[in-house]
Amino acid sequence: MLSYLARRCLYMIPTLFGISVVAFAIIQLPPGDFLTTLAARLENQGDRMDEAQMSALRERYGLGEPVYEQYGKWVSAIVLHGDFGESFEYGKSVSSLVMDRLPLTVVLAVSTLLATWLLAFPVGLYSAVRQYSVGDYVATTVGFLGLAIPNFMIALVLMYLGHSVFGMSVGGLYSPEYEDAAWNLGKFLDLLSHLWVPVLVLGAAGTAGLVRVLRANLLDELRKPYVVAARARGMPERRLVLKYPLRVALNPFVSNVGYVLPALVSGEVIVSQVLSLPTTGPLLLGALRSQDMYLASSIILIVSLLTVIGTLLSDVLLAWLDPRVRLAQG
């Protein structure tokens, strides 16, 4: 198992290197660069940037250098100094910008993931062992609705109901008086009072999908001969379901971690925009729109790292749950 983990960690290096090359190159594909985007924005506002200013900024940011030189400087600074560069848009280091938003993003991601699992597990289990019951039909209907309705649509509906019916704002993670306040118990409780809305919105589709996956896999296991034989020998139903079929049915459930975690940490860009969430999603969207290459590339690289770590974590959990996976990994 340790040799397997060591190999997987070594594979992360070329994987992340390839992702960094592709991300940096794709951001460079649109015509122009950050300065042309900035000049167009200023012109729309009735202002202009002369050629001398353009040349000075191009020299300062190194935008006149070939792409491979820009990439080499960026990667070498990350590897040697942990420096992700400076954001053109904000005039601050990329690390500080990301770290300002990453803690809340992680809190939101972990809360959504835990809520998704805690709800999907019992509902999927009940729906499988009580197939064709009223509860199963209700869970199936709600699940299909959760998969069919886009997350941002749920966010818009909640915002409308909160404003029109309850007279409250459901956007953001803080009340206005706590936006710039130092951390204290009041701000923490205010965060918890606002956290349920994005957790509900972000977790709707994931919960519905996991319920369907667990139900389908558990039903498939419950029909297998070893379950029928164990039931015929008088094994209690609860022990029969929980000890054997459920562990096998959890495999796809656990493997989903590798893809859910980075999707949540990326901030679910559209939902974050709708709910005005201070996560990394809107930051990435703004960087892509302004062609802020160091900021955009760094966020993509961080999300890719989380994807690789999430995939490794899901594989380790699968090996722990299923001895056949451990033997295959050898």
SSE map:
Layout (H helix, E strand, L loop, with lengths): L1 H27 L5 H11 L6 H11 L5 H15 L12 H36 L4 H15 L2 H14 L20 H38 L2 H8 L4 H7 L1 H11 L1 H9 L3 H7 L4 H11 L2 H29 L1 H7 L1
Helix pairs in contact: 1-15, 5-6, 5-8, 5-12, 6-8, 7-8, 7-13, 8-11, 11-15, 12-15, 13-14, 14-15, 15-16
Notes on the protein architecture:
- By secondary structure, the protein is mainly alpha-helical.
- 78% of the residues lie in helices and 0% in strands.
- The chain folds into two domains: 15-81, no CATH class; 102-329, Orthogonal Bundle (MetI-like fold).
Q: How many β-strand runs? A: 0
The residue fraction in helices comes out at over 70%
> What global shape is seen?
globular
What is the alpha-carbon Rg in Å?
Answer: 24 Å
Highest CATH level, the class of the largest domain: Mainly Alpha
The total number of structural domains is: 2
Ends apart, CA distance between termini: 7 Å
Proper CATH architecture of the largest domain: Orthogonal Bundle
- CATH fold name of the largest domain, please? MetI-like fold
Strand content: under 5%
Q: Main sheet, how many strands, which sense, barrel?
A: none
Order of H and E elements? HHHHHHHHHHHHHHHH
Unreliable parts = none
Within CATH, the superfamily of the largest domain carries the name MetI-like
Average of pLDDT: 84
